[in-house]
Specification:
heterodimer; A: 117 residues; 0% helix
Chain lengths: 117, 114
């Protein structure tokens, strides 16, 4: 899991509630990512950020929001608009280079399991 | 559309036997290919990656993978399996010119029995 921390390990959400998952890295990586993992479906990209104050939607961004105010932090908010939030959420980071064909490895945090009450 | 397939949901091997976890991909151009392992309720750990050059890539914990361009495959292998290798394995691909976005297979559970 390296220098990437996620908190909390378990999170419970009530109906209509927004919750925020924390992701911090001390690897001095430029890029950070959020994935959602559901059984039998692999990982799906929610949002990613290549640089501070900039981020892009991934494949399943609806019902989620992010911010990137600091290089080391990339919090994910699961809003009440996300109707099926129960999943394992994984944060990752990587070094990026200015080259267009980025080959850098993504390194993952330990994950947060979100459950709905 | 770009995709990654891991055709086996589960692979069972006996300890000491060789193991193979299969991965095929559909990506335009020459991709970058990765293998990750996940233990229960943990994040993914990087095992190895193919960028260019030698088709046989060696990685962590004695794992290796063979890139086959004609068959668009990147199978994970280990000569002698350990019980501690039992975990969920993910293949992932990234096309050149597509910064950041990894596409994952659905995962293969490896069960190594003593």
């Amino acid at each position: 899991d390296g220098g990437i921390t996620q908190s909390p390990k378990y999170l419970f959400r009530k109906e209509g509630q927004n919750v925020t998952l924390s992701c911090e890295q001390n690897l001095n990586h430029d890029a950070m990512y959020w994935y959602r993992q559901d059984p039998g479906q692999g990982l799906r990209l929610i949002y990613y950020s290549q640089i501070v104050n900039d981020f892009q939607k991934g494949d399943i961004a609806e019902g989620y929001s992010v911010s990137r105010e600091k290089k080391e932090s990339f919090p994910l908010t699961v809003t009440s608009a996300q109707k099926n939030p129960t999943a394992f959420y994984l944060c990752a980071s990587s070094i990026t280079t200015p080259r267009w064909d980025s080959q850098e490895t993504q390194y993952f945090g330990p994950g947060t399991r979100l459950l709905v009450l | 559309a770009q995709s990654v397939a891991q055709p086996e949901d589960q692979v069972n091997v006996a300890e000491g036997n060789p193991l193979t976890v299969k991965c095929t991909y559909s990506v335009s151009g020459n991709p970058y290919l990765f293998w990750y392992v996940q233990y229960p309720n943990r994040g993914l750990q990087f095992l190895l990656k193919y960028i260019t050059g030698d088709n046989l890539v060696k990685g962590s914990y004695g794992f290796e993978a063979e890139f086959n361009k004609s068959q668009t495959s990147f199978h994970l292998k280990k000569p002698s399996a350990l019980v501690s290798d039992s975990a969920l394995y993910f293949c992932a691909v990234k096309s050149r010119g597509n910064t950041g976005k990894l596409i994952f297979g659905q995962g293969t559970t490896l069960q190594v029995k003593p």
